[in-house]
Design goal:
The chain is α+β, with helices and mostly antiparallel strands. It contains 16 helices and 22 strands. The chain has helices at about 15-25, 75-80, 150-155, 160-175, 185, 190-195, 200-210, 230-240, 280-290, 295-300, 340-345, 370, 375-390, 415-430, 440, 445-465; strands at about 5-10, 30-35, 50, 55, 65, 90, 95-100, 105, 110, 115, 220-225, 240-245, 250-255, 255-260, 270-275, 275-280, 305-315, 325, 335-340, 355-360, 400-410, 435. It has a 7-stranded mixed β-sheet with strand order 8-7-18-19-20-17-21. Strands 12-2-1-16-22 form a 5-stranded parallel β-sheet. The protein has a 3-stranded antiparallel β-sheet with strand order 5-11-6, covered by helices on one side. The chain is globular, with a radius of gyration of 23 Å. The chain binds flavin-adenine dinucleotide.
Length: about 475
Amino acid sequence: MRATWRVAVVGGGIAGLAAAVRLRDRAPAGTEITVYEQSGALGGKLRTGELAGSPVEFGAESFLMRDPAGGESAAVALVRRLGLGERIVHPTVGQAALVVDGGLRPIPGGTLVGVPGDLERVATVARPAPDADVDAGRPLLGADEDVSVGALVRARFGDEVVDRLVDPMLGGVYAGRADDLSLTTTMPALARSARVEHTLVGAVRAAQAAAPRAPGAPVFGTLASGLSTLVEAAAAASGATIRRGAAVRELTPAGAGWRLTVGPTREAESVDVDAVVLAVPARPAARLLAGPAPRVAEGVGGLDYASVALVTLALPEPELPELSGFLVPGTEGLLIKASTFFTTKWGHLRRTDGLALVRASVGRYGEERQVQRTDEDLAATVHRELSAVLGVPLPAPVAGHVQRWGGSLPQYTPGHVDRVAAARAALQASHPTLVLAGAGYDGVGIPICVRSGETAAEEIITALGGPGT
Ligand SMILES: Cc1cc2nc3c(=O)[nH]c(=O)nc-3n(C[C@H](O)[C@H](O)[C@H](O)COP(=O)(O)OP(=O)(O)OC[C@H]3O[C@@H](n4cnc5c(N)ncnc54)[C@H](O)[C@@H]3O)c2cc1C
């Protein structure tokens, strides 16, 4: 190996950029880091745009402040590392609503992603099945068992709790269904306690007690300057060479390192590096690994993704309730899956001219065709449905934006954690200088992806001989 390490980060989303920053902080001085991003812009699902003169998130909107294990989240730690801590802002209005029978009801508190630890508190939106959550003298789950969230909660609390609470809350994050999504991946704290506790109420309470929240502590934060400033600051702090419009098309083992084929077929470029952080979604990762590591490719390539569209409308002086937004159960028959009242939720986005910015997300797993409707159709349908849910005719929008995110949200089915662990173990044994990072493996969300990228960077540093001093 050369005296100076050369590390390629493939994928310029937040996982890849967090990996690049960690490599800069911990690898020996002089390490050459290059980030290859196939699109024209860094950030992946983080993209701040502009609508009616306001900065608006066209992708991810905010990050969790706390780590599930306690302490601040990896996203907050990265923001601070990049000197942006003072720009963190929190929602000024946190209360959101659920659409039930066409109208809005406040989302009950005290649940874990909609799974209640106190059945009486959810009675305003759903009637839990009586007497189903019985203690059968053993833990809810076996030591290595994984189930879908829906299967567990339906069996213990009945259908209404799933359909009216858990499904819309999980749908808001994954655009997927509780009946398909893995408990271990989407709700790891609940999965852990379900391996000890004998009832679901007991498991929810134990998970909540394991990570107590200081009263009044904010759950979410974002950057007043927009999340793209996090992306730019990470790229700058990493000191990496940034290659935009540079798709990596092939990865070939070369000695202990790798040869990358970059760019279009006719002008393909070959680059040799000592190590690779592969921070792209699971499907492109599987295509790149099909040659060098077919078993690994098979292990990660089966992950399916949902497509969503985000429709943002600028409405002049609409009558909006004092809510951060609302979630829509699939059973309500609406196109809108969730809506955020940006200018109510975030104080820094409030305007003096009465204009409100409202975003709706559209598209559930398996309904990709809805996302392919024209911009005009999506905007008109969202406008009509918003008026119906709010019970007031909304004014015509003065501006609008439609952002499609095709194949963007991973649908982790039960057993995902084990499949990824097996793939990583096989990769580590055969090709220790290539490490997987990002949402395709470790879960959805900015904090999880930051941690995933940082962990990948640490593993690369270990594989190449240990940190710099
Ligand atoms: C609509 C939406 C809203 C969301 N809202 C939130 C939110 O509010 N809060 C939150 O915490 N999380 C949110 N998430 C989830 C979060 O944004 C993602 O989990 C996270 O950003 C994924 O980061 P990543 O780096 O793993 O992947 P990505 O962001 O997908 O980045 C991967 C990058 O790799 C590039 N790439 C792919 N193939 C190649 C190749 N062959 N060569 C080079 N580059 C390649 C892609 O162009 C992309 O830029 C949201 C996700 C979506 C889709």
